[in-house]
Amino acid sequence: MAEPYALYARRILRLEPLDPIDPPPDPRDRGTILHRVLERYTKEGPPADQAAAGTRLRDLAIEELRALDSEPELQLFWQRAFDAMLPGFLAYDAAARLPGTEVIAEARARYPLDLSFDRRVMLTGKADRIEIGANGAARIVDYKTGTPPGWSAIDEGKSPQLTLTARLAQLGAFAAVPPLLSIESIAYLPIGGRQPVVPIHVEKTAADFGPLAEKILPALVEKLDALANGDESYDATLRAKRGRGEEGEYDHFARVAEWSIIAAADESGDEP
Predict the structure, then answer these.
(1) Are 165 and 125 in contact (CB under 8 A)?
(2) pLDDT at position 28
(3) Given pLDDT bands bounded at 50, 70 and 90, which one contains residue 22?
(4) Considering the domain 102-228 in this protein, what is its CATH number?
(5) Domain range summary for the chain, segments of one domain joined by +
(6) How far is 195 from 226, CA to CA, in rounded Å?
């Protein structure tokens, strides 16, 4: 939970950020388009012929990128990045589709978390890709258009997405997926066009991520209880440093910029 204050503002105060007027496309829009292309491709079932599969995948990208017709230069740039990624994704997808393997795209999960004092929180989420082999063993895959987190960030709980998804899959939280009792690997798959489309952290076994997955929900319940009981504050961010474009949607409401100036002044000894 990187931004507790966003949880407070959205779920308790029920404040929704206003959409900016005619915003320019940003990296999040690119990620949304790429995810939608791969979701459609996976759900409709790729052609067996690799050339036909490549043609179909590129056609889907062209269709989705039509949303950028008013931004022709950006549209061309994103199309070229997709073309750079396409051969690698086709190779990965073909290798993953062994006989009897089922590939599930964008599966949605719901799981209730019981807190103290009879309070309950509904945890919801979505898995980019779940591969279930003929032997029942599964791989959880998360697409990344940017730089995937290193294993240390996963191990320390700073990037819990894969381990949380794995735990929800084990508990049967995905409506379209039976409880996965055997998860053999978890992986990030780069799809941004700059890195090879090779699964990252796939070499880690259940011995590596299993204990992390088992601890993640109790840790989340403990955190939510501490926030709800007033034992911890709803901090604007728990990340030590955020890069450009990583600002929170509620930063202005939490007065992050103002408090950052005061904190910087305190460190320097100057008056704000």
Answers:
(1) yes
(2) 86
(3) confident
(4) 3.40.1350
(5) 4-96, 102-228
(6) 40
